[in-house]
Amino acid sequence: MRKLTAVLLAGALAMSALTGCAGGSKEAPTTAAPQETTKAAAETEAGSAAAVDNSDKTIYVIVKVLGNQYWSVLQAGAEQAGKNLGCKVVVVGTALESDIEGQLTLLQNAVSAQAAGIVIAPLDSVSLDAPITEAFNSGIPVVLVDTVIKSDNYSAALLTDNVEAGKTAADEMIRRLKDRGISEDEVAQIGIQVGSTGSQTIIDRVKGFNEYWEENAPEKWVVLNDDIKVNEGDISKAVGFCQDLLTTYPDIKGVFGPNNGSTVGFVTGLTEAKRTDVTMVGFDFSAEIETMIRSGEYDVASVVQRQYFMGYDGVKTALDLANGGTVAEKAIDTGVALVDINNVDTEEIQGIVNP
Q: Which of 45, 76, 281, 285 could form a disulfide with 353 if both were Cys (CB 3.0 to 4.6 A apart)?
């Protein structure tokens, strides 16, 4: 069933690739400059927060997987905003990316509690569309982070341009394979696994990856889109899928993880198998991928997002709206950066991964 779902996802992405970016450029993709709250700005906000009494306002922050390292960083940003701005912040989340019903219940609880604002990262862009629309229509400011829904029934969204982020990952994969000396006449297979087939974030990243790959990769370098693995956010499944790909495809030269859980699964699987001959490009900055990068033994890079500021600015935006404010832009691209062994300790990267 998972394989069938993956095939359907791959088909949909293939159609998207045909209709989008026709005649696209072969230039390396770029990402928008981040529009984020800096620490200096946060301190200014903290100093002026006393002018507005927000103590009676509660902002609910609903993440995808509570305790996951990626979402823990976003949670930290949200909680710091609450401290600086003087409002109460309640952070909740599910145990698995597949628990859509659980997230729906958390959303309903926030509405029932008469939250002043809701910040939410939807687990499923379609299934959560109607309940988020209902919350929005009730008059509660709803700020999306990380993932959008199918409609525009929300107050604001802070997220990565995920199609462009996927292109960035593909460009990095192609560059690394060429640097490794993989010939354009050599068969090279690229494996993919995803956390969910319903997340628009993941769909867009795979779409961008495939679009850029079709335009720029040698003909014999192929992405295994007919066998995309779906791990449902389960790390043990993600590790198993990595092992399956390594065993099934003798010409596999690279793997791509478009979300944190899939990336951790690939990191763990490659490390256990000691497959230093396989290039990996993932997303986010977990303890696992940091260890892999710092080891210097693997050909690895990760696309990192500014999720701390998604959390901070998500709460700030929801609170501003609750106080009668407006947003200048409904959708804000928070940008991405690539991290590898060459820049992991730079001020820029450390400011993102350890804000």
A: 285
pLDDT tens for each residue of 36-91:
455 545 555 554 554 689 999 999 999 999 998 889 999 999 999 999 999 999 99
The conformational region for residue 346 under phi > 0 = left, psi -120 to 50 = alpha, else beta, is: beta
Dist. CA 186–CA 336, nearest whole Å: 31
Q: How many residues does the chain have?
A: 355
Q: Between 24 and 301, whose confidence is greater?
A: 301
Greatest Cα-to-Cα distance within the chain, rounded to the nearest angstrom: 66
Could you give the count of Cα atoms lying within 13 Å of 154 in the half-sphere of its Cβ?
A: 30
346 three-class SS: coil
Cα(89)–Cα(314) distance, rounded to whole angstroms?
A: 11
